Amino acid sequence: MVQPKSLPRLYAYLLIMRWVIGVIFILNGYPKFSDPSFGSQADTFLATLRDDIIFKPYEGFFENIVLPNAFLVAKIVKYAEVILGICFIINFPIKIAVFGALCLHLNYLAIASLPTFMFLNIMMISAEFAIYGARQD
Known about the structure:
By secondary structure, this protein is an all-alpha fold. The chain has helices at 7-34, 42-48, 56-66, 70-90, 94-110, 115-133. It is globular and about 55 Å long.
């Protein structure tokens, strides 16, 4: 049980964690907006990721949903990263933003080819669960 004296410090840590996640999303999404050709080669790029899938159940989803709709998936990721970043920074609607961030990071984790990417995605997922589980009355 968290003691009442430590609650302000806990909320400060959660605030910093939310802002860091928000800035990471914005920094990842902003270059996609500045590149007018982003998404035009999405089918080729995503096809190269086919060999990097580390979770075998994800292969069916990737083959049947992601690859045929590569341009749409690229657009969704482009807008989702910036919108989620803003939602994390302003703390509204945080529960929906955490769900969207978890969806993105679980997909990124399924295709993480390097241990560093796996570790970073696991850290982001853990931070998002901490934000989701925190009661901020």
